[in-house]
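Researcher: Sequence recovery benchmark, item below. Answer with residues only.
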């Protein structure tokens, strides 16, 4: 699993004059924070030292905490980043979206693949089949895995189809229809309602240009 640390940059300082020294340094020093799970965080400091913070236990492996017993700048930094939404709270970890580089906070034991809000698919969304380039419309997003869903027509699981050989079997399946020819002058053509089942990772959500632009200007 690809986990993601917060960028090693100083944070904006709220009214710096009133902060004591450790608190000021917790904000202003470049540190990166990586959530390891189990409430543990790995801090890479400005001087390239690596420390471990146990947030709920209020402990850190740095000398300032170990020898002086103080709430050091690393513990403070983890707390600040969680409050700011830059680092996941205990119980969650930051992972990289399957389809882009965005960080996503997920439960520690959440199964892969993980998707950011933009790449999460819902019924009605347009997706592209990576194998054929075809566009489809999502009708159902299941929690069942591709290696567990058996198709009646052939008796094979979704994962066993040759066309799905490039995709892991332990991902959820998605039902989708081809949006063309859904309605004839006489009404809906039943054949056009056939739902095809894909491993989730074979489909990529179509994100409109407008929402993509909005994302890049917001970043
Ligand atoms: Zn420390
Ligand atoms: Zn994404």
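Model:
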């Amino acid at each position: 699993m690809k986990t993601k640390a917060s960028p090693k940059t100083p944070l904006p300082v709220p009214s710096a004059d009133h902060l004591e020294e450790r608190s000021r340094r917790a904000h202003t020093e470049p540190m990166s924070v990586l959530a390891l799970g189990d409430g543990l965080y790995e801090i890479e400091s400005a001087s390239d030292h690596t420390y471990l913070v146990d947030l709920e236990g209020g402990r850190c492996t740095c000398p300032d905490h170990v020898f002086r017993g103080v709430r050091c700048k690393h513990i403070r930094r983890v707390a600040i980043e969680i409050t700011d939404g830059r680092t996941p709270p205990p119980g969650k970890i930051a992972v990289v979206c399957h389809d882009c580089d965005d960080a996503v906070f997920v439960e520690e034991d959440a199964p892969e693949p993980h998707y950011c809000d933009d790449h999460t698919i819902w019924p009605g969304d347009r997706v592209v089949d990576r194998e054929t380039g075809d566009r489809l419309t999502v009708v159902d997003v299941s929690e069942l895995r591709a290696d567990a869903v058996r198709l009646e027509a052939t008796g094979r699981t979704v994962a066993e189809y040759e066309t799905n050989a490039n995709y892991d079997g332990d991902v959820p399946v998605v039902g989708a229809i081809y949006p063309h020819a859904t309605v004839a002058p006489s009404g809906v053509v039943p054949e056009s309602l056939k739902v095809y089942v894909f491993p989730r990772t074979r489909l990529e959500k179509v994100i409109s240009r407008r929402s993509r632009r909005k994302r890049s200007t917001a970043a």
